[in-house]
Amino acid sequence: MAKKYDLNEVEVWDGNYAASQALRQAQVDVVAAYPITPSTPIVENYGNYVANGYIDGEFVMVESEHAAMSGCVGAAASGGRVATATSSQGFALMVEVLYQASGMRLPIVLTVVNRALASPLNVRGDHSDMYLGRDSGWIQLDSFNAQEAYDMVLCAFRIGENMNVRLPVMVHQDGFITSHTAQNVSPLSDDEAYAFVGEYQPYNDMLDFSKPVTYGAQTEEDWHYEHKARQHKALMDSRDVINSVFEEYKAKTGREYKRVESYLMDDAEVAIVALGTTVETCLLAAKQLREEEGIKAGVVAPRCFRPFPFDMIRDALMNVKALCVMDRSAPGGAMGALFNEVSAALYTTPNRPIITNYIYGLGGRDFSVKEAKRIFKEQLAHAEAGEITTDIQQFSGLRGPKLGFFKTKRS
Amino acid sequence: MNGLDGTEKRGIKELGAEKLVGWDEVEQGVVINSFEGDATGVANVHAENRNYSDFNSYTATVASWRVIKPVYNRDYCIDCQNCWVWCPDSSIISRDKQMLGIDYDHCKGCQVCSEVCPTNPKSLLMFLEATENDEALAGWPEKKEKEK
Amino acid sequence: MVEIRWHSRAGQGAVTGAKGLGDVVSTTGKQVQAFALYGSAKRGAAMRAYNRIDDEQIINHEKFMLPDYVLVIDPALAYTDNITENDKASTKYIITTHLTKEELIAGLPSLADKAERVFVVDCMQISLDTIGRAVPNAPMLGAFVKVSGMFELDYFLDRMKKVLSKFPQKIIDSNMDAITTAYNAVN
Questions:
Q1: Which of A181, A256, A275 to mutate to test the interface with C (most CBs of C within 10 A)?
Q2: B91 lies in which domain range?
Q3: Residue-number span of the structural domain to which A221 is assigned
Q4: Is B130 found in the same domain as B91?
Q5: Residue B123's CATH number
Q6: pTM of the predicted model, to two decimals?
Q7: Cβ neighbours of C23 in A, within 8 Å
Q8: H or E element, residue A192
Q9: Dihedral angle sign, alpha carbons of residues A266, A271, A276, A280
Q10: What does DSSP assign to residue B52?
Q11: What are chain B's partners, defined as 3 or more CB pairs within 8 angstroms?
Q12: Mean pLDDT in each 10-residue stretch from start to end of chain A (411 residues)?
C-alpha cells in the first residue's frame, strides 16, 4: 500500500511538480521515460515517489524517447495505467510510436511540456511539438497555468480510460512559463483525487490469459481504412466524455473547464484565439483595454486541441467583427495551423468575421501584455476598415524588417 | 480428439477470405483474439484441440501458394527434429519428439526442411505439388555412397 | 501587484529563494508567481528570478516586469548586470556587498540618484557565518522581510520552517539564523 502525501489546501507548485503530483495521485503503474528539458522533473519526481514508497509502480529507464513510448505501449497493452513525459526533440523521436499507441487504442497519458524544435537548438517554450502531435490520433488537452496542468492530468486519465473512448491523451503545458513557474495550486487530497480518477479498468489486456490477444497486426488496403475510420470516430465521440468529465470535475473542485474557453466574449467585437499561457496574458490585455479604452476585446482558447472543437470555436467567434489567431510554431511555408482550423470553422458562418494570423513567441520569445493590446487594437482597425488592413500573416516580436505574407483579395 | 494432420478447424478457409466488415464492426485497436471463448490454460492444450478463432492463422490455409511440396519418408527419419526447428511456418507436426508429418495447410513449400534433413537418403524431399505422396515414396532414391 | 526581480548566479539559490518566498506569501492568502530566466547555462552564469504577488489570481505570463524590488544576491552582479533595467521611481534595491552603502554607490553611478532606495547587506558573509556555505538566498529573504515590511519576522520564520521541514533540523536552524541576522543587519 502506497504512502500518502499530506498536502496543504494551497500549495505553491510549478507546472512540472503539479503534473507529477497528479501522476502520483492517479497511482500510475508504469512510467517508461527518457527525461528531457523542460519536462525532466515530471518523471524524475515519479521515480522519487516510487523509490520512497508513495507509488506502487515501476519506473522503467530506457535508451530513447522512441523506446520510452514503446515501453508505455507494451505496459498499457498489458493492462496497466501508464504515463510518461517529454518535450521537443524527445517528442519528435516519439512520434512514430504515438501513432501506434492511438491506433492500438491504449489510454496512455503523455504530459508534454511544450518546447521549440531544433534547429537551432533551444530549450524554451513554443508549440512546435504540440503541433507535431496534431494528426497522431491522441486527445490533446492544453493547460494555461500550473493549476490547470494538475487538473488536466487528473481529467486525462478519466477521459482516456473511459470504455467509450480508450484513446491516449496528451496534456500540454508551456515550457518554463508554466513548467518552471511556481504559482498557487489547490490540489485534491490523495483520496479525493484517486476517487475521481478511479481504479484502472483493463480492456483486451495481454495479461488476461483467458483471452489471449494479438496487438500490432498488419492490415493492408482491405482493413486499414475501416480501422482508421473507427479510430477517428472514437476521437470525435470523445467530445461528450470530455464534457462530462469536466462537469464532474467542476462538481468536485469548483473549477470549470470547457473544450473551448471563452473569456469576455459576450459582447466582444474583437478577439484573440491562442493556446497556452498566452491565453491568460491576452485576457489581462483584454481586461485592461476594456477598462482603459472601452474596447470590447475577448479571448477564445481551445482547451481541447484534439479533437478540434470545430463547432464550439464557431459558436464562440461567429459574432465578432475581427479576430487574430496566434500560432506559436514556425508555420513551415503555410499559414499557422490554428489559423487554418479556426478559419475553416468560421467560413461556415453567415458573418465570416475578418481573420488574421500572427506567428509569435518562437523559442520562448517573450509575449507581453503590451503587444497583446497592440494586436487587439489592430483587429479593431481591420473591423473599422471593413477589411484586412495588414498582411494576413504577420510576425509579432520579431527583429528586422517587417515580415508578412498575403493581402486580402479585393473585388 | 481430432486427428493430428487433419483437424476440424485447421486451414478451413483461404487466407484473406474472412468476411470484410464495415468500420463500425472492426475490433477497436486492431486487436485480434486468438481463440473463441475462455482460453484459460490453452498453453497446455494441443493445437488440434484448441478453439482457434477465425482470425487466427491456424484456421486459414495457404496451401494454394505452394508449387512444390515436401514429402516425408518415415523409413529414414531419425527424429532429430532439425526440420521442426527450422520450419518457418510451424508446419512440421511432431509430438513427444517424434516426427509425424507435414501440415499441408500452412506449408508454403520453401524447401528448408528438406535442406536441413541430415539423413542419407533424406527423409524429406521436394516433389511437384501434383505428385501423389504414395508415388513419391515409391520412387524414393537409394542411399548415396560417400565420394572418396 | 508587487513585482520582485532577483539578480543571481546559477547555484546561489535565487530560484529556491523566490519559490520559498512564494510559499510563505501563499500562506497569507495571497496569490504568487515565482519563475526564473535561465537556459542551459552552467553554475555561475548570471541569471534572474522573479516574483509576482497579488490579491487576485496572477494571469500575466510575460517575462517583462517593472520591479518594485530588485534583490541582488551576488556582489559582482551589481556591477556587471543591468540591475536598474525597467525600474520605477519607487523601486527599492537590496544589494549584497561587503562595502558600505556610500562606498557601493560611489562605484555605481546608476544608483546615485536612488540612494534613499538602496539597502545593503552582506549576504555572503552572513551565509558563511551561519550556514557555513556561500548560499546568499536565505539572508536576502531576511533583508527583504525587513525592507518590505511585508511580514513580521516571527511570522516569516515560522512559515519558513514549514517550507524547509523536509530538511534536517541543523539546516533549518542555520537558515533561521541567517534570515534573522540579515534582518537585523540590512541598512
A1: A181
A2: 65-137
A3: 11-253
A4: yes
A5: 3.30.70.20
A6: 0.93
A7: 12
A8: helix A190-197
A9: negative
A10: B
A11: A
A12: 92 97 98 97 97 97 97 98 98 98 98 97 95 98 98 98 98 97 97 98 95 92 95 98 98 98 98 98 98 98 98 97 98 97 97 97 96 98 96 98 93 63
